[in-house]
Design a protein that fits this description.
The complex is a heterodimer of chains A (232) and B (525). Chain A is of the alpha/beta class and 232 residues long. Helix content of chain A is 33%, strand content 27%. Chain A is globular, with a radius of gyration of 18 Å. Classes of the chains: A alpha/beta (232), B mainly alpha (525). The interface between A and B is medium-sized, with 32 and 35 residues.
Chain lengths: 232, 525
């Protein structure tokens, strides 16, 4: 389970996250929606331990900067951060070794699933943006994390990969993983999500569960536009 | 040139000036540089050339030739690899697609490049003081040297562009032109080194003789440019005329080749322009780009070793192999050559002075190696291993290079300065420890000022931290010296004191920063 409590993060005078709290239970998918500059990526970087913040974040009960938390966390960054001079297969070997993953076949399974198996000897710098994104997803999933954070995972993906990723979201949810997905494409998570947070100016302007959405007249998309396009 | 292009050139220039006034940081930097420049000029002019002991100006001409040659080789050889471009990405998107003749666009690019070349040589102006002291040169001669440097950069970039245009599609012609290019340089270098080695006792006399030799003056491009500079400095009209004529002819041939034989050169510069743009953007955003060759030889695939933090080290070995950094990179070799070159002039000042200069240069050449690249990616923070382990494993790959660098630098220096073996060993050990002292300084600054986004401020703290960290070694050396404690030799004792103290300080800083990867910020600096 992922738990974020009262997280605040500022860059100088700019408050990027203002007392943000959320929970993503095991087997749950939470989505983060919001316009550009709302603070979604900052929150994700705080969760993954890449930024300093005030407040607390736990991953499967462990403080997010602890080794126990890192072992249980997977992160797909907004911009794929790959190594130019490693091949596709070497990226996965590196992750396997760095995370001390014993399972041998999962790397191949992931590469085949994302149509990268035949590109396994291609260098990181020679991959298209979409392929880089797919590899970045494979790297995040390889250690079989319990909590996975996706920052705009669909950007640059081809229709096949988008389909695969959507299926994978469902499978990971069924396996009991906690997923937090930041996205601009509301329809990309379709019916998989359990809770949606709409973020505006560093705060949650609205939080809606799936059940609430089904009971209400306004769709999530309509709610999003009513909040983000409302005159300030 | 079409009027819109002229408008673009002038507007860009005007906006650049205006942007300086709008940014206080940039303005302070410019004012500081101007103040430094004025100071250098005043102090330089205060040294009356007639009273100081001046060296043979032929030495300076030889040195200039070597500097121009190095710049020319470094820039022109890019024509065999990625090519060169006179354009910005905005030119590609807006000017290339606009209804202009490609020759007009080329002229636009050339004028734009001339300005950049002149700016690149600005560092030469700061050398006025010592050049005047040693060779009694005037301000005019210094400006001529700057002009020669700018001309070298300009012609080298144009050469790279032409080389790329004509050879990139054909491996055979690339090999042939490469052979000619490097063959000519090797022939000249062989001839010069042979003369230098033949009479090592008269090194400066031979150097001076080489600097004014006909073969040097007629050496393609760089020799012609040197002729213009030397001719102007010595009042030889013939040299100025011949040099200028040769340069103009060369420029005409290059432009002619592009305009007449290759009017559709846009494709040739496109890739390089895009690469330059990515590099500049990455630099602006504080990202570190991989200096990878265009054609990477894969070689053996797979890490095959390492678990946990050591996986980083084995990954670095693969990356170094593929980026063709066997042990040392080109930049380290250039720094070594500069130190050896300057040591010629400093040899009378003694080994400690030479070592101090080499350490000063080391400040700029020491980098965090692959660690700095890792710090810009999330994996070093995400991998579930103790922070100190990850830190040490990420610095590990630089050990062989640092050691070899010390050997390559000090063995020739030991021959030149006729050092005792103990002093040589002392130098090597001390330099090795300084490399890690500076690395520790880098890490300390990253740990403490990781969130500061002002680069100038970070550099200031970096140099301040290094000065403070270097101090204990210097103090111990002075104390031992004043107490008359000698181990083997005086100089060896100094280097040993530096080495021992540097190691202790480095280990202390590493220990204090052991949790750096837990608390550092992966921001966009």
């Amino acid at each position: 389970m992922l738990e974020v409590n009262e997280v605040c993060k500022s860059y100088g005078k700019l408050v990027a996250n203002d007392h943000v709290s959320l929970k993503v239970h095991s087997g749950e998918i939470a989505i983060l929606l919001g316009p550009n500059g709302a603070g979604k990526s900052t929150l994700i970087k705080c969760i993954t331990g890449l930024l300093r913040f005030s407040g607390s974040i736990t991953i499967a009960g462990f403080p997010n900067k602890s080794l126990d938390a890192k072992r249980r966390l997977g992160y797909v960054p907004e911009t794929p951060a790959l190594y130019d001079l490693l091949t596709v297969s070497e990226h996965l070997e590196f992750i396997q070794r760095a995370y001390r993953v014993r399972e041998e076949d999962y790397a191949r399974e992931l590469l085949e699933r994302f149509e990268l198996w035949d590109k396994r000897e291609k260098l990181g710098k020679g991959l298209s943006k979409g392929m880089q994104q797919k590899l970045s997803i494979c790297c995040a999933l390889l250690p079989r994390p319990q909590v996975i954070v996706f920052d705009e995972p669909m950007v640059g993906l081809d229709p096949h990969a988008i389909k695969q990723l959507k299926t994978l979201f469902g499978e990971l949810k069924d396996q009991g993983c906690s997923l937090l997905i930041s996205t601009h494409m509301i329809d990309s998570v379709e019916n998989n999500w359990d809770v949606a947070h709409i973020m505006v100016e560093g705060r949650f302007a609205a939080t809606r569960t799936r059940l609430e959405e089904m009971a209400q007249e306004k769709s999530l998309e309509e709610l999003y536009f009513s909040i983000t396009e409302a005159p300030s | 040139m079409k009027r819109p292009l002229l408008y673009l050139l002038l507007t860009r220039f005007k906006n650049q000036i205006l942007s300086l006034l709008k940014s206080p940081g940039k303005l302070i930097y410019i004012l500081f540089m101007v103040a430094m420049l004025v100071l250098v000029m005043i102090t330089g002019r205060q040294q009356p050339p007639e009273t100081s002991i001046q060296r043979d100006i032929g030495e300076l001409f030889a040195g200039l030739f070597v500097l121009y040659l190095l710049m020319f080789i470094l820039l022109a050889k890019r024509g065999f690899d990625s090519g060169a471009s006179l354009f910005k990405l905005s030119d590609v998107n807006l000017v290339f697609t606009a209804p202009f003749r490609s020759s007009s666009v080329l002229l636009f690019g050339l004028i734009q490049q001339m300005g950049t070349s002149l700016l690149l040589g600005f560092f030469l102006v700061f050398q006025f003081s010592w050049l005047r002291q040693l060779y009694g040169i005037s301000l005019g001669t210094l400006l001529l040297i700057l002009f020669g440097y700018a001309l070298t950069v300009f012609l080298a970039q144009l050469t790279a562009m032409v080389l790329y245009s004509f050879t990139s599609a054909n491996e055979k012609s690339t090999r042939l032109v490469k052979l000619l290019f490097y063959g000519l340089i090797a022939l000249y270098a062989g001839w010069a080194v042979w003369h230098l080695l033949r009479d090592t006792d008269q090194l400066f006399t031979v150097l001076s003789w080489l600097g004014t030799h006909k073969l040097t003056r007629f050496f393609p491009v760089v020799g012609w440019i040197s002729s213009i500079v030397v001719g102007s400095a010595t009042g030889s009209v013939m040299m100025i005329l011949l040099g200028s004529l040769a340069c103009l002819l060369f420029l005409a041939i290059l432009v002619g080749l592009l305009v007449v034989s290759r009017p559709d050169y846009y494709e040739d510069v496109l890739q390089t322009t895009e690469m330059n743009y990515s590099a500049i953007t990455a630099q602006k955003e504080g990202k570190v780009t991989e200096m990878a060759p265009r054609n990477v030889r894969l070689g053996k695939v797979g890490l095959n070793r390492g678990a946990g933090a050591t996986a980083f080290y084995h990954k670095h070995r693969i990356e170094n192999r593929r980026s063709r950094i066997i042990i040392l990179n080109g930049q380290s070799l250039i720094f070594i050559m500069i130190v050896i070159f300057v040591s010629f002039f400093m040899r009378e000042a003694g080994m400690i002075a030479v070592f101090a200069f080499s350490t000063y240069m080391q400040l700029f050449s020491t980098s965090l190696g692959r660690l700095v690249k890792e710090l810009a990616k999330p994996y070093i923070y995400l991998v579930p291993e103790p922070s100190l382990n990850k830190l040490l494993q990420n610095v590990r790959e630089s050990i062989p290079g640092t050691l070899v660098e010390s050997l390559i630098l000090f063995i020739p220096l030991a021959l030149i300065l006729k050092l005792e073996p103990a002093t040589l060993i002392g130098c090597i050990i001390a330099r090795f420890t300084y490399a890690y002292l500076f690395t520790a300084g880098n890490i300390l600054v990253e740990r403490v000022f990781g969130t500061v986004s002002a680069k100038v401020l970070v550099f200031f703290f970096y140099f301040l931290a290094l000065m403070i960290m270097s101090l204990p070694g210097v103090v111990l050396a002075i104390v031992l010296n004043s107490l008359g404690i000698v181990l083997i030799t005086d100089t060896f004792t100094v280097f040993l004191a530096l080495a021992v103290t540097n190691t202790a300080v480095t280990l202390l800083v590493f220990y204090l920063c052991r949790n750096m990867l837990q608390y550092a910020e992966l921001n966009n600096r």
